[in-house]
């Protein structure tokens, strides 16, 4: 693709009153959303905005991502095709203000079957095995679908409840996204015969558009300026793309483009490689940490930590430091039943594979990660906790 010929996309200026608008501080009703999406899919044109997803940007200014009925329908059709789940009933276990939660309702409307709703879609009610079981037992026989974030799946598997496992095994597919899933979690699901499908995407792509590292039907992937290892910035294209950010010309023109063949593209913040149609995400474009003048990859450090038998999940961050520039820090949760070794063992484990500069100077062990209202790890809170731990260490 010739990036010099791309034309920035203009921002959407307005949305019809019929569009569903979701956000963390906005009221949402799954039944009303289902009805709205059903009407949108039956309309004479699919070019009208049908969903606006409001998210807080890194600068604190909210982004309102606009998705047309056509984008939602293309996503729903591609998901059904990829998972052989045409006409399936979905369980809604994700918050409605999160694109993955809204998409469960949209896919349900496309299938013509209302979803079964867990109590935990509100922020005040935690997701529990009991909540999952109660919802699963209300579902129709036949094809059934479920979308979760890794923390929710851990909650179900950690219950060691045979009935929970039996219900998980009965789903046609379990879409897992929102945060990277550890290799240990994926292996556990495979061993237990739970059909997990990892997803990659964002609100800008109508949720997941790459399943198990392969693009859905109609989705295009391009790697910009790959290095000697084939790794570069990931661009995504296809019919599932959002129209842009509502009334935000600057952000829209920096992220959404059209090529000379009228193909639309979204410039992600991720780096990855594409080999024989398989996309490997290496991390965010800002994933590289520079500590003591040496570049290290936060993603590779995370993956190495999660290879340790005692660690279930890890999140790595760079903490500003007057001497090192950035200090490598990590928060980890432990594998249930595993004995907690000395922190130095984790540090040595990373250093043995990636070199001493990559070894975290601070490692904070917790029972579970703090989570945002979407159920995903709250990286801002985690960064603050690691910064506090680093400051306390410097004062010793």
From TrEMBL:
| Listed Pfam families | AMP-binding, AMP-binding_C
Q: Enumerate the InterPro entries for this protein.
A: AMP-bd_C, AMP-bd_C_sf, AMP-binding_CS, AMP-dep_synth/lig_dom, ANL_N_sf, ATP-dep_AMP-bd_enzyme
Q: Which residues form the AMP-dependent synthetase/ligase domain?
A: 26-246
* Chain ranges of the AMP-binding enzyme C-terminal domain: 304-376
Instruction: Show the Gene3D superfamilies listed in the entry.
Output: 3.30.300.30, N-terminal domain of ligase-like
Q: Which GO terms describe its molecular function?
A: acid-thiol ligase activity
> Sorted alphabetically, which PANTHER family does this protein's record hold?
LONG-CHAIN-FATTY-ACID--COA LIGASE (PTHR43767), NONRIBOSOMAL PEPTIDE SYNTHASE PES1 (EUROFUNG)-RELATED (PTHR43767:SF1)
- This chain belongs to the protein called AMP-binding protein
What is the scientific name of the source organism? Rothia terrae
